[in-house]
User: Fold these one by one.
Assistant:
Number 1:
Amino acid sequence: MNILVVGGGGREHTIIRKLRENPEVNTIYALPGNGGIAQDATCVPISATAIDDIVKFASENAIDFAVVAPDDPLAMGCVDRLHAIGIPCFGPEAKAAQIEASKVFSKNLMKKYGIPTARYETFSDADAAIAYIRQGSFPIVIKADGLALGKGVLICEDEQAAVDGVRAIMLDKRFGDSGNHIVVEEFLEGPEVSVLAFTDGKVVKPMVSSMDHKRAGDHDTGLNTGGMGTIAPNPYYTPAVAERCMQEIFLPTIAAMNAEGRTFRGCLYFGLMITKDGPKVIEYNCRFGDPETQVVLPLLKSDLLTIMHACENGTLDQTEVAFSDGAACCVILASGGYPEKYEKGKEITLNDAESAANVQVFHSGTALKDGALVTNGGRVLGVTATADDLGSAIQDAYAAAKKIRFEGMFMRSDIGARAMQACNND
Ligand code: AMP
Ligand code: GLY
């Protein structure tokens, strides 16, 4: 079988490594891939958002199955276009990808179908938003409607910050057109849990839960990033919480999307907050999370390609989705300056970081330059270790991460520390 994977980050590298475990897989093409993915797949220099070029490539290269991993091509209808030329895909069509692509859409969906989430109002006029904020309590949360690389969320401590935030998003267009509409919502408190779930639009099979670490600095300080590390499973996601999530959030969301004529097939990501009033949805993503995938898929015992086919064919109820009882930790190695300005092109020395059987190095932002591996992004590598328990996974991930060198490299030193504390308090 020939497989096409759209995307070129750590998430895609993890998916490709897992797909390779299926003996029926021959060639995997990554569009565009990256310097590390090149060791596991055939990289083709076509951007993940060049939909016409992707469709042309797929039609000319006998592709049997396509995996569209990032949010942008999903929202742009890449899966719809591949379906139109008869190629089965893993990933939602554009009208289902709206669950991530428009926060106004997803908030209204939750309100209409009674799915627990933060109270909110939506606005397309800055003056109306400011008038509403002046009557509110603080902190308050302002979100740009559209895709904004995970940066379109402002948590405002007081009225002035909130008013400035509305102006920045709606009038100065800090996040471009994604700020034409905004959501203003209640600030929620509690531990956050990420749950990725496979669905064929009929049944939903959650994967092992995980915890992201979004801030750049130790102890959750500094700017928000795409994610500096992850652990799985998340200790706050107890069996009782999982059952509530299934009944109150996962099943109602699948049913709501069907009722709206937007059946979701693929990986639906639930960003949850476990508040004192129960679990609530912070956000939906229409895809695998990054770097959640780097800890979730290494724990998957079942065959990924079989599951992906089942999501497309509507046979997920008959398909095994089993995870190991162990734990995983992924530590992200980032370029100095990230998430702000950083330099690229620094030579990377991996040493024997990947020598242990329980360690994998997934490439997020790397490139090959004259045969040498160099940095090519803010998040450069994700070092994942799996083990029987979380403490060993954390220890092994850090031991491997510390073998790697590139100029300006930095990592958080406390990935998994909060989860360990929660485990010990049990
Ligand atoms: P999002 O892009 O919607 O996931 O938001 C990014 C981050 O902002 C989340 O991971 C939360 O830490 C935080 N956040 C978003 N919405 C809220 C909220 N209503 N209350 C508190 N924190 C929030
Ligand atoms: N790690 C969060 C995301 O993928 O959006």
Number 2:
Amino acid sequence: MDDRPIGVFDSGFGGLTVVRALIDLLPDEQLVYIGDTARYPYGPRPPAEVRLFSEQITEILVEQHDVKMVVVACNTAAAAALDDLRARFRVPILGVIEPGLRAAAKASRNGRVGVIGTVGTISSGAYQRAAGALRMSAELQCAACPGFVEFVERGEVDSDQVYVLAERLLSPLRGGEVDTLLLGCTHYPYLARTIGDVMGREVVLVSSAEETAFDVRSVLQATGLHRSPGQPAHHRFFSSGDVGLFAEMGRRLLGAELSVAEPIDFCRRASA
Ligand code: DGL
């Protein structure tokens, strides 16, 4: 047994999709979530910068919050930094790319899987590398969707504008070849209605959240790190941006577990 919390981070609200799955699957575990809303979006940033941010956040989770494990609940950060984080920190570090791919491969019947993500994730080739490592036979068709994350961060998940953008960005993936679409950005499940509508009802949408939660449970079971059962779980949420807005929007997206957001200031930390 290990009663320390699990650390989870993302550039903003997207990682809350993974938090939802973790709370539902592992209700005894306590989470510390960091949403780097002051520096989102990560997608257009150079990989070296995303790596630096990811290391900074992981260091805070490990050193200040004494987490027993870190879930990189952001595809862009996982694509840029997962290997470095695993080399540098001693706690288990889990990403969202492999779990998402496994879930998509299971869902596809014709072996043609579309993957959508940020420019950083798609241009990194991380999905193709992970598919190779998993010896997946599915054929991947990848497309970047710049702008989706910004809509979610503004709380605009089903406006006409997001629909028009989705029609444009998803057009290379439409036309019947792809029977499964992997939402390779943790923000995208909040746009699932729009994306599903544009892709057509015969295309199955897959998010990495549930499969990632199963991976976390497997690691907890394999290492004996799970929390003693029966005590109430208290989660903490930090935002580098406007904490009032984070709490309000976050509660709408995640649910009642997010009632308070606490501030975290990377600029002040960097210069302190
Ligand atoms: N949720 C992040 C991801 O999965 C969004 C990255 C961004 O801030 O652009 O990639």
